[in-house]
Amino acid sequence: MVNYSPEFLKEKALWVRKATLNIHKIAPETRLASSLSDVEIFVALYYGGVLKFDAKNPRWEERDRLIISKGHGSISLYPILADLGFFDKSELEKVCQKGSFLGGIPDTTIPGYETINGALGHGLGVASGSAVALRNKNSDSKVFVLMGDGELYEGAVWEAVMFAAEHKLDNLILILDNNKIAMLDYCKNIIDLLPLEEKFKAFKWDVETIDGHDTKAVLESLRKLKEAENGRPKVLIANTIKGKGVPQLENDALCHIKSLNEEEVIAAINQLQ
Fold it and tell me: How many CB atoms lie within 10 A of CB 118?
């Protein structure tokens, strides 16, 4: 399914957004807004040929690792994993229901998930350790980690930032879903995170900043960062909109904790058409 065509990736992103809304209709407890801001990132990783994986053998030793630190905000990955054959598509109709392995917060029972992603702020540390281990085994596999900008309030994140730079982990790529809204307010009203680029550069990271909803830009930047071997960890700051595609969620300071009812979901899907 690898396809570098911008049109193909755009169509896939639209399909994933609709599928994520359908999941939310089944399971309103899922974090919808957080799962809509990172759709194009997942599409580029999985359909654009960035990640090296085997859907039939999710623990394939030669795979690239994707550590999803914002686990609650990755429900949009479920349709992609099902589409690629990690598990049967019928499972998408059972999210958060009794007997389903697809929950509101993913864990390693789901084929394709590397870690349990509950409490925030730990993903980058885990990814850094994985990057060291892979390098010690002379593996050419890369480690990607997806994190939300609100996680930057966690001190453990900055410990990992320093660790990665000190150990020159150029096989580590952090993708920051910079949607600018935390759980209960805009980040700028909590602790202003800006300037992000300068912060990471000061810690000796390579930095790229893009429109996180431009699949072509996301794909090109991820491929570039993956190929660079210069002794520095990398971060892709993807500027996104929380709740992307659903007008009543976009840029709502409380969208993180808001759910849509069935009628609202259907209306949102129709608007996407």
Answer: 11
Question: For residue 1, is it within any domain?
Answer: no
pTM over 0.90: yes
3-state SS string for 89-100:
HHHHHCCCCCCC
Over residues 151-190, the pLDDT tens digits come to 999 999 999 999 999 999 999 999 999 999 999 999 999 9
* Tens-place pLDDT, residues 2-17: 667 889 999 999 999 9
Rounded CA-CA distance 54/51 in Å is 10
Residue 252 lies in a domain: yes
Cβ neighbours of 163 (radius 10 Å) = 18
Q: How many CA atoms lie within 13 A of 130 on its CB side?
A: 25
First to last CA, the chain: 23
Q: What are phi and psi of 112, to 5 degrees?
A: 110, -15
Work out the number of other CB atoms within 10 angstroms of the CB of residue 193: 17
Q: Report d(CA 239, CA 75) in Å as an integer.
A: 19
**Per-residue model confidence as pLDDT tens digits over 104-131:** 999 999 999 999 876 788 999 999 999 9
Domain total for the chain? 1
Which value, in Å, is the radius of gyration of the alpha carbons in the chain?
A: 17
* Lookup result for tokens 């431009």: 214
